[in-house]
Amino acid sequence: MAFKSRRAGGDSEDYKPCQHLLDYKANWGTQAFRVLHKCLKPGPPGRASIKREEKEVPRCATCGKAQGRLYACLTCATIGCWVPPDQLHSRLHAQSKPGHDLAVDIDRAELFCCLCNDQVYDADFDRAVIGSQTLLALAGRVNGSQNGADSGSDINKAGRSSKGGLSLKNSVANGSGSDRRDVDEGRDRKRRRKGAEYRSWVPSPLDLLAIRQGSTPLVEDCLPSGLRGLNNLGNTCFMNSVLQALLHTPPLRNYFLSDRHNRTICQQRATHLCLGCDMDTIFSAAFSGERTPYSPAQFLYSWWRHAANLAGYEQQDAHEFFISTVDGIHANSGTESPRDRNAESGRSGDVDCRCIVHRVFSGLLRSDVTCTVCGFTSTTYDPCVDISLDLEPDIRPDSKIFMDCIMGNYDGGRLSRGSTANGITGNSTLLGCLDRFTRPERLGVNEKFYCQRCQTRQESIKQMSIRKLPLVLCFHIKRFEHSSTRNTSRKVDRYVQFPFSLDMAPYISSSIVRSRHGNRLLFLESEETWASHCPSTEFELFAVVTHSGKLDSGHYVSFIRLAGQWYKCDDAWVTRVSEEVVRACQGYMLYYVLKTLSYKSSDDNEESPRGHESEGNGNHGYTWSSSGVTNGTLS
Amino acid sequence: MRRRASINRPPTPDGEEDKEAEPTLQEIINIKLIESGEKERLKELLRERLIECGWRDELKAQCRAFTRKKGRSKITVDEIVRNITPKGRAMVPDTVKAELLQRIRAFLMSDNL
């Protein structure tokens, strides 16, 4: 039985290695595990094992059987079995020979203390395993699949001792011993919070009375509220399509409709331009019940003032507009992000920022660069308000197979999800793009990365993952391709299949890092906290912005989902469409919202009312109605 | 024709150590599976199936619950394995067992032996 003891959300400081491990390390020093890399077998990322000859059957040296868990002694490489409850030959071995306490699990390449009956963790050990895994993966990719079976078998023989054991003996001493930890890890641990489950709000009789007295019911008609066409003010379909998506972004809509940014009392407006106020105006107009198309001229003008370089009646990129609008609302919101002090200030999509757009859209990307020589990983985090996805390169049958061969060794099972769908239909899928986005990528020879540990530039492997999922995920599919060699741009008109319901679990950092390293101590700590903080990774599609036409001239249209029904918003015209139409459209930007939300626990609520935000009920912001997408509350 | 007396003699009993070295059928099969690489493939298949059917998540939850109950610092991997293994075995869906059995049977019938 294969079990892994996962430490639940622990920090490495909490972990006390057993005395046997300490003794072993005192004896052998940090070089103790260096020789390991000769004994490891390439496997799917995160699943290292001890290498053996093709036909070799690892057996217990005492009973000669190949059952139970098998451990190879770290000191003399004798294999012992572990068949609970009473057949524990590796334990006997450890008891009979002092100093032979530690052993390596043959199938999992994990450290085990035979005297404590427990898995033990050691950063040096993990680093050695990860380093060799990276190397092996790299070798596998270079050699291709044809000689994968026998590659490295000579090293294997050299490292093997005579009597059925595996030589793990400490014999090689190379590399520098100094250990450096990732600088980023500590910083993130501080931000640990606990989430509370969402409970729907049930109004008390008093509340009901207040609602009845303080509000006028909207006139019922067949269309859900908020649907209103936007007039084209001269090539402004890029703006209209994105505005429609923003108007129906549930958390954003609730924010503005619950009067949290009131343009009549906003102080910002008197002195500066405030895109938030203009958004408020548009929200009021859209949800006023009026159905005749609205002209967002004031907003356009404010946006021009905000983004002077984009002002004019030319056609613009909807994605660019989205980014600049988010930036604009943030800049005028009067909130200061805690990170503004840092060098990173001014970056759009700050996760710590309390302004509404960043609370809704901003996520955190994690990028790991692993040195292929020593296994040292440098991690950086980047805030983002959207995720730009590359389209897969043109898929031709032969090249596809070839690519699979090359990458199969490295990507293991992960590749299958996106690519099988591609292989059959010839279409790209959003999941395929996400797989591509998060797959390990070898940095080219001329972009060698400076490894802090080796103190020199080394070949390395880079992998992206999503550290923090935003409430609303915006995907931008890079359909506009720029070729620097020919200095031309073109639009890629390819259909990308996208799901209406999306689970992001495979792409968040904890999953990615775990699948890369298995349950190694080294990289788990900061990620576990986030995984437990955000139990929900299920998203639901609510808006699609599409582009038709060419690079320099074309038309943007958006599809919005309201109350389970899709509507096509084409400037001033809003029409009801079927799901199939949406599925068949050529998505350019895709907006997904988290299906279930959780409260942030109140002890974390250091939020203070900012200038113009009328923060009525300090704690848990606002609920949104069941008018379609999600029920939930944003804290 | 006269037979030699030695032929009628019962065979000398095996030494004690020989008897112990005689592997059981189960062990032979196990070793054959490992040698041929079939065991790796079976493991991979099993892993996939168990993930698909939610067995792994369920087991993970059980392990977490057990660990929490015992206290994180007081528990060993060995204890978890001892306690969770019976539950884990019982939780494997019959369809998965049947599929694996079928594969092993097919392997034994094939020429790989």
UniProtKB/TrEMBL annotation, chain A:
Domain USP: start-end pairs: 228-595
Ranges for region Disordered: 146-196, 603-635
The UniProt GO MF terms for this protein read: cysteine-type deubiquitinase activity; zinc ion binding
Key words of the record: Hydrolase, Metal-binding, Nucleus, Protease, Thiol protease, Transcription, Transcription regulation, Ubl conjugation pathway, Zinc, Zinc-finger
Q: In the UniProt record, which is one GO cellular component term? A: nucleus
Where can this protein be found? Nucleus
Query: Cross-referenced InterPro entries, in alphabetical order?
Result: Papain-like_cys_pep_sf (IPR038765), Peptidase_C19_UCH (IPR001394), Ub_carboxyl-term_hydrolase (IPR050185), USP (IPR028889), USP_CS (IPR018200), Znf_RING/FYVE/PHD (IPR013083), Znf_UBP (IPR001607)
> Known SUPFAM superfamilies for this protein?
Cysteine proteinases, RING/U-box
Q: Name the PANTHER family on file.
A: UBIQUITIN CARBOXYL-TERMINAL HYDROLASE, UBIQUITIN CARBOXYL-TERMINAL HYDROLASE 22
Q: What does this protein do?
A: Recognizes and hydrolyzes the peptide bond at the C-terminal Gly of ubiquitin. Involved in the processing of poly-ubiquitin precursors as well as that of ubiquitinated proteins.
Question: What name is this protein filed under?
Answer: Ubiquitin carboxyl-terminal hydrolase
Supply the source organism for this entry.
Answer: Riccia sorocarpa
UniProtKB/TrEMBL annotation, chain B:
Report one GO cellular component: nuclear pore
- List the residue ranges of the region (Disordered): 1-22
Keyword Transport recorded: yes
Which Pfam families does the record cross-reference, listed alphabetically?
EnY2
Protein keywords = Activator, Chromatin regulator, mRNA transport, Nucleus, Protein transport, Transcription, Transcription regulation, Translocation, Transport
Q: GO molecular-function annotation terms?
A: transcription coactivator activity
Q: Where in the cell is it found?
A: Nucleus, Nucleoplasm
Q: Which domain of life is it from?
A: Eukaryota
Q: Name one GO biological process term.
A: chromatin organization
- Coarse class of the primary localization is nucleus
Q: Which family does the entry's similarity section mention?
A: Belongs to the ENY2 family.
HAMAP family listed in its UniProt record: ENY2_Sus1
Q: How does it assemble?
A: Component of the nuclear pore complex (NPC)-associated TREX-2 complex (transcription and export complex 2). Component of the SAGA transcription coactivator-HAT complex. Within the SAGA complex, participates to a subcomplex of SAGA called the DUB module (deubiquitination module).
Q: What function is annotated for this protein?
A: Involved in mRNA export coupled transcription activation by association with both the TREX-2 and the SAGA complexes. The transcription regulatory histone acetylation (HAT) complex SAGA is a multiprotein complex that activates transcription by remodeling chromatin and mediating histone acetylation and deubiquitination. Within the SAGA complex, participates to a subcomplex that specifically deubiquitinates histones. The SAGA complex is recruited to specific gene promoters by activators, where it is required for transcription.
Q: What is this protein called?
A: Transcription and mRNA export factor ENY2
The record lists the organism as Riccia sorocarpa
